[in-house]
Specification:
Elements (H helix, E strand, L loop, with lengths): L5 E11 L5 H8 L10 E6 L4 E6 L3 E7 L2 H19 L9 E10 L6 H8 L4 E3 L8 E4 L7 E4 L4 E7 L2 H21 L2
Antiparallel strand pairs: 1-4, 1-5, 2-3, 3-4, 5-9, 6-7, 7-8, 8-9
Length: 185
């Protein structure tokens, strides 16, 4: 089995600026803000396509980008828009990537019952087909990074904070599945 290729499909990142008047920003920027429903205003960036949640505290959460450079562009756009409303240049704190999600096609159909038997010997695994059609595998002890595996051979890696963790998770999974494939021939 070749090392699976993967594609980043979502990056979640956080940053911080000064306290924000969300009602004012909602009026000026025509962004969605319904404080009775959700405590953040929703700003949508078009290029790159991303959603940013603005909180009164000044916290900003960005989702939907596929590259780190797009994350930076989305934060730059929102901070410039907010700065225009306040008529002053604003800064944001260090951008912190909190979650990266990647998808992969392993190139083979999986018998999830057998895969579960093998994977639980190599780390934490969970498979309850009555509840969810995928098998969850945590390749690193004590880490939040997980891989969801589906019968079709599709896999989703989530919880990583950087691309090297995603790469290592898919490599570990690939190695375990290769060993299994070799021993079941």
């Amino acid at each position: 089995m070749k090392r699976p290729d993967y594609k980043i499909i979502n990056i979640v990142a956080a940053a911080h600026t000064r306290r924000l008047d969300l009602a004012k920003l909602s009026d000026e920027l025509r962004i969605e803000y319904e404080p009775r429903v959700f405590p953040a205003a929703k700003y949508r960036s078009l290029e790159p396509k991303a959603s940013l949640l603005l909180f009164e505290s000044g916290s900003i959460i960005c989702t939907g980008c596929k590259t780190k450079s797009d994350v930076k562009k989305a934060f730059r756009e929102v901070i410039e828009s907010i700065g225009k409303v306040y008529k002053r240049k604003l800064k944001i704190s260090h951008i912190n990537i909190t979650n990266m999600v990647a998808s992969s096609d392993l190139g083979l159909e999986l018998d999830l019952d057998n895969a579960y038997s093998i994977l639980r010997e190599h780390g934490l695994a969970m498979y309850e087909p009555e509840m969810f059609p995928g098998l969850a595998f945590w390749p690193f002890e004590g880490k939040t990074t997980s891989i969801l595996l589906f019968k079709t051979g599709k896999a989703i890696c989530a919880g990583a904070k950087n691309e090297s963790t995603i790469k290592n998770a898919f490599e570990k999974l690939s190695k375990i599945l290769e060993e299994y494939k070799g021993s079941s021939s």
